[in-house]
Amino acid sequence: MLPSSLDELIEALRCLPSVGPKSAQRMAYHLLQRDQRGAARLGQALAHALEVLRHCERCNTFSEETICQRCANPRRDASLLCVVEMPADLAMIEQTQSYSGLYYVLMGRLSPLDGVGPRELRLDKLIARAHDGKVQEVILATNFTNEGEATAHTVASLLTARGLKVSRLSRGVPVGGELEHTDTGTIAQALVERRTV
Amino acid sequence: MLPSSLDELIEALRCLPSVGPKSAQRMAYHLLQRDQRGAARLGQALAHALEVLRHCERCNTFSEETICQRCANPRRDASLLCVVEMPADLAMIEQTQSYSGLYYVLMGRLSPLDGVGPRELRLDKLIARAHDGKVQEVILATNFTNEGEATAHTVASLLTARGLKVSRLSRGVPVGGELEHTDTGTIAQALVERRTV
What we know:
Chain A is of the alpha/beta class. Chain A has helices spanning 4-13, 21-34, 36-52, 69-72, 87-95, 123-130, 146-160, 184-192, and strands spanning 54-55, 62-63, 77-84, 101-105, 137-140, 165-168, 195-196. A 5-stranded mixed β-sheet of chain A has the order 4-3-5-6-7. A two-stranded antiparallel sheet of chain A has the order 1-2. In chain A, a hairpin with a 6-residue loop joins strand 1 (54-55) and strand 2 (62-63). At the A-B interface, helix 1, helix 2, helix 3, strand 2 and helix 5 of A face helix 1, helix 2, helix 3, strand 2 and helix 5 of B.
């Protein structure tokens, strides 16, 4: 009953996380009726991001370069490697201004129920990265949720088996909490109190 | 700190209704990390919809043609014109399969606080449409919210002043509804609008 281009837009909007048919319809009407400029901008931003964004070959976060600026910065401490789940977690740690090492962004977490195992998470890339000869300590900063803890546990066993020092953020972070929603003071404290595992 | 193309995508996603900075970031990561195909499809759907969708010259709903299929259908009763706020409302009335007249879609409602007055809502277009010489009765089917009621009231005065018959959807207890679970305002209205049987 709807024009096919409108139908297709509503259907396409459903690829957004937690957007169902009603929300998608509301979004489509809003874009077409109230914010055509925003809609055009969004379409262009999507196309551009898909075109230019890749994963940094060293830290795996989104980057427009082969090696992101952070990894290429010689003033960062290359002996420390902090493993986080998502770029948002990296951003939170950077905001504490209490860490000057490098990062590895998993872009997810182990989640067997969703079919994300060590292979899907490409833990082999992390292991290769951690064995560049410069990294002395790997700091696990995955979330303190069940999945984040399981991820940390798995990564820890893989790395300690290969002789690397591995630490975990201290439990200053509330159990069950997520880094993205934790205050920076708590995260800073957890960095200072990290414990060897 | 983020690549500019990622920043721009997150910013652009905020044009979606009720999407704040955190949701926009989550959406961007989801699209780039988990659903690049969906992202590409969304970008194309936006561009295509913006290109081909216009408003039907008769009923004002979204259409790829100058006159939409419904308005062009000679089997619809051209003496009845049903006024709704949004295409979703039109779809609900069509689903009842109990109306065979035509529609006019306001694409909004009067909302003085948001700066939407009779001029912004282009009520002049509705008035012109209602005076095509064929329309005998205008049925107001705006929502029964404060804004929808105000819109109906304004449209009614404009049209009756020009000699057209104007009606409004009846208010009352929902079909299948139990008095015990109906709000008192609705029951009071159902009493006022009681019909002789």
